[in-house]
Design brief:
With about 110 residues, the protein is α+β, with helices and mostly antiparallel strands. The chain has four helices and three strands; from the N terminus they run E-H-E-E-H-H-H. A hairpin with a 5-residue loop joins strand 2 and strand 3. Helix 3 packs antiparallel against helix 4.
C-alpha cells in the first residue's frame, strides 16, 4: 500500500432506538480506508459500544473488495454477525458502497 492512493469512505445508518450505539452516537458509522483504484479495503473502523464489535467487523472487511465481493460480504455479515445492530451494519455497508462509487465515478452496473 506504500504508493497506493487511498480514499476514506464513511457508511452511515440508524440502529434501534434502544441500541447502545444509538444512545452513544446517534447513528452507526463504518469507516473504510480503500485503495482508490482497486476498491480493496485496507483499514476499517466503526462506532461501537463493545471493542470486540469493531475487531470482529474489521476481520470481516479488511482485505476484501467492497464492489467485487459485495454479495459475499453481505452474506458473511448476515451469517456471522448476530448483534442487535446487524441491520445497521448492512445498511452502512450499502451506504459506503454508494459513496465509494460516487468517489471513483463507477455506476451501479460497472461492478468492481
Amino acid at each position: 500500500m506504500e504508493d497506493m492512493e487511498t480514499l476514506y469512505i464513511i457508511g452511515e445508518s440508524r440502529t434501534n432506538s434502544d441500541n447502545a450505539i444509538t444512545k452513544m452516537f446517534g447513528s452507526f458509522y463504518m469507516a473504510l480506508e480503500m485503495e482508490a483504484e482497486s476498491g480493496k479495503i485496507v483499514d476499517f473502523s466503526c462506532t461501537h459500544s463493545l471493542e470486540l464489535t469493531e475487531k470482529f467487523l474489521r476481520r470481516v472487511f479488511v482485505g476484501r473488495f467492497l464492489l467485487r465481493e459485495y454479495d459475499q460480504l453481505e452474506n458473511e455479515v448476515t451469517r456471522r454477525y448476530h448483534g442487535s445492530s446487524a441491520k445497521a451494519v448492512l445498511a452502512a455497508m450499502k451506504d459506503a458502497e454508494k459513496r465509494y462509487r460516487a468517489a471513483v465515478g463507477k455506476s451501479e452496473s460497472t461492478g468492481g
